[in-house]
Amino acid sequence: MTQPEHDVLKAAQDNLWLHFTRHSAYQQSEIPTIVRGEGSYVYDIHGKRYLDGLAGLFVVQVGHGRHELAEAAAKQAQELAFFPLWSYAHPKAAELAQRLAAHTPGELNRIFFTTGGGEAVETAWKLAKQYYKLIGKPLKHKVISRQIAYHGTPQGALSITGIPAFKQMFEPLVPGSIRVPNTNHYRADEITGVPGMTPEQYGIWAAERVARAIEMEGPDTVAAVFAEPVQNAGGCFPPPPGYFQRLREICDEYDVLLVSDEVICAFGRLGTMFGGQKFDYVPDIITCAKGMTSGYSPIGAMIAHERLFEPFKGGDTMFAHGYTFGGHPVSAAVALANLDIFEREDLLGHVTANEPRFRQTLDDLRDLPIVGDVRGSGYFWGIELVKDKTTKETFNADESERLLRGFLSKALYEAGLYCRADDRGDPVIQLAPPLIAGQKEFDEIGEILRGVLAEAWAQL
Ligand SMILES: Cc1ncc(COP(=O)(O)O)c(C=O)c1O
Question: What are the pLDDT digits (tens) for 128-149?
């Protein structure tokens, strides 16, 4: 190891505070350190190559090492490095807002920029509260979200998040957030207590739980429902057919805003520019971030239906909310260049054309005794691991700890695949490669998973 490499690793150990990380895991070993990327691959500090099976963190849509995005950033920094969107505009934010509005469904034309996804979710809840106050329904403030769903870490977004373990240490959180079942059809029998529901039946059942929650809380008190097109945490739960259509009806019936949290699902992850477009529903608000710049610079957005902006148009009303770096000129310029790449390379078409191949490659792993379910959409897939395929018995906390943290995460990484072994719900492996990936990368993912999952089963 060279001295500079040694210095980096030491600095990481001594001074970095990693996110969502048990630092004890690195007491005896170095912190994995990634130094560069090219296409669908990244390289660590020792020069070893890894397939980026998670696009960083569902972010790097166009792949690593795109000079034109770096150049767009440099050009903008030279021209206007910074100006806020507080009472002023700058051309790149205006252009990006217009371009995003052209891609959104319906009349979702009003773009409030943030620096990331959690802020977008936070912004959506605050907007929902103020909107209803302004239109004379001041009691409407509560939100409904789904079990195990992750919506970010600011205290409002964390309150909406449905993962108790992430919340306990920070209670009390923002009050008024209620949980309903998610769209995990694989576990529908356990969730409903009714065996053998079809996906369609389960979809309607799950949507109706939202209606019951609104009625229980009192429709006059509920402002919004937050749902991802495909729920990430828990392992890629796509919506059963009819789910979002029924949810849309319920939201309309009770005058509740439907917020589509597309922090992962927007920008081609599912093969459509926005996630709701894949499943034919039009929300009232979209929250997005990650893929907007493919990660070359941070930005997020809350995109609101024009009617939600209406009460803010006149008099002395304003949305007293903002972020210094929201809609940063460099990030906005990068986002525009990123969208250019999407169009030029038809990335949406590429994902749509390749989705069946990706699905097939992962479905081929179903012969392994540990693979219980394979589910997802576009370039966004989860593999649920089970102890017994027939009974769908899952691992207990201790086994899950040994399997996911003790073995799988490390073994996959050592085998050259960066992806995520997750136990926020039942144990799953999550895959979301850059949108430029194709059969060659799918084969590599399939081969590494087969070897490591067979080894995991042998170790149990
Ligand atoms: C659905 C969803 N919402 C919100 C967030 C929070 O985004 P950020 O980490 O950019 O704050 C995430 C992050 O993964 C997410 O997946």
Answer: 999 999 999 999 999 999 999 9
Atom from ligand 1 closest to the CA of residue 116: 10
The full DSSP string for 326-384 is TT-HHHHHHHHHHHHHHHHTTHHHHHHHHHHHHHHHHHGGGGSTTEEEEEEETTEEEEE
Domain boundary among 316, 344, 372: 344
* Ligand 1 centroid – CA 167 distance (Å): 15
CATH, residue 362: 3.90.1150.10
Atom of ligand 1 nearest to the CA of 115: 10
| pLDDT at site 425 | 84
Judgement on whether residues 327 and 364 belong to the same structural domain of the protein = no
- Both 162 and 251 in one domain: the answer is yes
What's the domain range around 37? 32-62+347-459
Token pair of 235 as six digits = 């392992």
Distance 434 CA to ligand 1 centre (A): 17
Does residue 23 lie in a domain region? Answer: no
Residue located nearest, by CA, to atom 3 of ligand 1: 151
The CB density around residue 391, as the number of other CB atoms within 10 Å, is 9
- Round to whole Å and give the CA distance between 100 and 130: 24
Query: Among residues 329, 344, 359, which one ends one of the domains?
Result: 344
CA of 232 to the centre of ligand 1 (A): 10
- Give the integer Cα–Cα distance in Å for 118 and 47: 33
Number of domains in the chain: 2
* Cβ < 6 A, ligand 1 pocket: 116-118, 121, 150-152, 228, 232, 261, 263-264, 289, 300
- Taking only the tens place, the pLDDT of each residue in 436-453 is 999 999 999 999 999 999
Q: Give the model confidence (pLDDT) of 42-80 as tens digits.
A: 999 999 999 999 999 999 999 999 999 999 999 999 999
Ligand 1 atom closest to the CA of 289, numbered from 1: 10
Residues 334 and 237 in one domain: yes
433/58 Cα distance (integer angstroms): 8
To which residue do tokens 């977004």 refer?
157
What the block records as the tokens of 49 is: 């190559």
Within a domain: 21: no
34-38/41-44 β-pairing: antiparallel
- What distances in angstroms separate CA 155 from CA 112, 123, 158, 357, one per listed residue? 19, 12, 5, 40
**What pLDDT shows up at residue 48?**
98
Judge if 56 and 170 occupy the same domain: no
CA distances from 26 to 19, 309, 424, 454 (A): 13, 48, 21, 26
